[in-house]
Amino acid sequence: MTEDLRSRALDALTTARARTAILTGCVDDHELTAQHSPLMSPLVWDLAHIGNQEEQWLLRTVGGRTALRPEIDSVYDAFAHPRADRPSLPLLAPAEARGYASDVRGRVLDILNATPLEGGPLTDSAFAFGMIAQHEQQHDETMLITHQLRKGPAALTAPEPPRAGAGELPAEVLVPGGPFTMGTSAEPWALDNERPAHQRAVPAFHLDTVPVTCGAYLSFMADGGYREPRWWAAEGFEQVRRNGIDAPLFWRRESGQWLRRRFGVTEPVPLDEPVLHVSWYEADAYARWAGRRLPTEAEWEKAARHDPVSGRSRRFPWGDEDPTPAHANLGQRHLRPAPAGAYPQGGSPLGIRQLIGDVWEWTSSDFGPYPGFAAFPYREYSEVFFGSSYKVLRGGSFGVDQVACRGTFRNWDLPVRRQIFSGFRTARDAGPDEGIG
Ligand SMILES: [Fe+2]
User: Fold this and answer.
1) Domain residue ranges in the chain
2) What is the distance in A from the centroid of ligand 1 to the CA of 132?
3) Which pLDDT tens digit goes with each residue over 203-218?
4) pTM score of the predicted model
5) Where along this sequence does the record place binding of Fe cation (predicted)?
């Protein structure tokens, strides 16, 4: 078990670093140090920040080693500097940042080999190593967003995702009512906000079988959805009005056709693909227009994990097995969501598809602690974000790696955000005689 976790940690760290190398190796030094959007850090900041977090947690805290570069800690402290200000910091140059991250990694691999994976919450089950691999992958997704915001020709390439699975799917699925186990106390690398496992009552509801597609979203737009205040939360309507928003981010209309820009390529909006780059406000307005609503976070997790036969919550919609390329669109393997209905092998027991991968799915829920929450290993991981400012997203996108994606994983962001790989699906209450459980 211990050796399994050690090799799992080594794999996760190595996979993350290979991806970081692709994201920072496909553009020149000028582009690495440029700020492509005030919403994002220069890529070279993310690169050295990845190394610096790894140095602080694995080299100094777990390994007990002397600090390598303590003087740069403050430059790479995400809480000390908003992203817009980061280009003006005394950043390590690209070659220096690469050398630093690789120097830290070399020492960390020695520490991984030498550390007993027991004896404390940071080292039990190689937690800190898993946490740092997840941290790097989360920054890799952030860097992928920077690539999407970047102007200029394509720098990244990837094969197309699989087409939709065979057969017509029902529009929605009834999820029976009753309690289920939400969160986890068993997943070794689950983060503090996913813990602990607890019982949650969820009344019966209907959930879309697949995420809302661009084609369906175009119907909302064509019906004047962006101009009709009754579909919108007041702040959301004000935000689209003030900013002249009338379509998802990266979309534009040309000669009567909707086009989108995707990683440097302009292409017609694909009607059968899950809609991407919408804010929580847009998702919420669409749902109201459709006579539906966004699912709560508990509804989403029940749909993704609850096995109605065994009554148990599983790690993923398809079971406890780690994701494979046949289950879900993860890890930047493709540079877009797969068409709605793809990945039949990744479906839930009730037949709901694409809950994991493709697009992060907005839920109606604010980001908050589960009963029994304890901040670990630091308050700034989750606790400082709890409250009504942030909405929860679930399920992971094509840009998240499997180490940072599971049925219990929680992401959160501001309801105005749309540069993230966000989409949604809708829900509705079941009738009084439906799905009593
Ligand atoms: Fe970070």
Assistant:
1) 2-149, 165-437
2) 9
3) 999 999 999 999 999 9
4) 0.97
5) 49, 135, 139
Report which of residues 323 and 86 the model is more confident about: 323
- Tell me how far the alpha carbon of residue 27 lies from the centroid of ligand 1, in angstroms: 21
> What's the one-letter identity of residue 394?
R
CATH architecture of the domain 165-437 equals: Alpha-Beta Complex (3.90)
Using an 8 Å Cβ cutoff, are 193 and 410 in contact? yes
364 close to 294: Cβ distance less than 8 angstroms:
yes
> What six digits make up the tokens of 77?
């402290």
C-alpha to C-alpha distances, 145 to 89, 139, 140, 199, 343, nearest whole angstrom: 21, 10, 9, 35, 24
Give the separation between CA 199 and CA 268, rounded to whole angstroms.
45
C-beta of residue 19 within 8 angstroms of C-beta of residue 332: yes
Known binding residues for gamma-L-glutamyl-L-cysteine are 83-86, 413, 417
Q: Out of 21-25, 54-58, 166-170, 367-371, which region has the weakest mean confidence (pLDDT)? A: 166-170
CATH architecture group of domain 2-149: Up-down Bundle (1.20)
Question: Which of 144, 123, 129 has the alpha carbon at shortest distance from 26?
Answer: 144
Bridge partners of 173? 207
For ligand 1, a single-atom ion, the residues with CB < 5 A are 78
- Which of helix, strand or coil describes residue 99? helix
State the DSSP code for 411.
E
Burial of 232-253, coded b for 16+ CB within 10 Å and e otherwise, reads: beeebbebbeeeebebbbbbee
Nearest-angstrom CA–CA distance, 213 and 275: 5
Is residue 117 within 8 A of residue 128, CB to CB? The reply is: no
Asked if 288 and 234 touch (Cβ cutoff 8 Å), the reply is no
